[in-house]
Specification:
With 221 residues, the protein is α+β, with helices and mostly antiparallel strands. It is 18% helix and 43% strand. The chain has helices at 4-29, 42-51, 204-207, and strands spanning 54-59, 69-79, 82-94, 96-100, 103-107, 112-118, 122-129, 132-140, 149-153, 165-173, 175-178, 185-188, 210-219. Strands 3-2-13-10-9 form a five-stranded antiparallel β-sheet, with no helix packed on it. Strand 2 and strand 3 form a beta hairpin.
Length: 221
């Protein structure tokens, strides 16, 4: 399994080289505005990520710097709506300390980034929150969960208080479905086009046989 950071670095490098190449070639041949020589766009990059089964999720939680607390990353595993396992992965603080131009400064925890790479039977995650970074976090599925899995983000709360616990990302299984006339069988995953409700009220949670939730809990420091 390639490191997610290496894959993304390679993609960015391809974009930069492609952009520079097209600019130089276009200028030298006098057809810089020719659409056929346009550099790769964000849509092109998104298409490449989809082919590679990579998703990038950014959660703009925007905690104010004066709201001092710990932000703990947790993982929950469910069978349908039954919680069967919960694990604390790691945590950071708000504000967190980091170096900026060689000087230690305090910064608010304003964003959490999760990058996922899907293979046939597992997900590999890269997670960044504050001064905490976790690479190549692998989720393997037990053989009893034969349906493929996919991921989808949750809606963020509108405000945050100490003691709050809210989900960020779902990795859930498809479920078997039959057409209304009973003639066709298929597999479905999360009817909703929008982000999932953070109170688990979406219909998908009633039929999804297995899913994993990553979320944040805010605690007193």
């Amino acid at each position: 399994m390639k490191n997610l950071r290496s894959i993304l670095f390679a993609l960015v490098t391809i974009l930069l080289i492609n952009s520079l190449f097209n600019k130089v070639v276009g200028q030298s041949n006098g057809y810089l505005n020719d659409p056929s020589t346009n550099p790769l766009s964000q849509e092109d990059l998104q298409a490449i990520l989809e082919v590679l089964h990579i998703n990038i999720f950014k959660f703009n939680i925007g905690l104010p710097i004066e709201q001092k607390c710990s932000a703990v990353l947790y993982r929950q595993e469910y069978e349908k709506r039954n919680l069967i396992n919960e694990t604390i992965i790691w945590g950071t603080s708000n504000p967190f300390r980091t170096l900026e131009n060689g000087v230690e400064v305090e910064k608010a925890l304003d964003q959490i980034r999760i990058i996922s790479k899907k293979d046939n039977d597992n997900f590999v995650l890269f997670i960044r929150m504050g001064d905490f970074e976790l690479a190549n976090y692998t989720i393997k599925y037990d053989s009893i969960y034969s349906n493929p899995h996919d991921c989808k983000p949750f809606k963020l709360p509108t405000k945050y208080n100490i003691g709050d616990k809210f989900p960020l990302l779902l990795i859930g299984s498809y479920w078997d479905s039959t057409s209304k006339d009973g003639k066709m069988k298929t597999q479905r995953f999360c009817w909703e086009l929008k982000d999932l409700n953070n109170d688990f009220s979406d219909r998908a949670f009633d039929v999804m046989p297995h899913y994993i939730v990553f979320g944040i809990q805010l605690e007193k420091q």
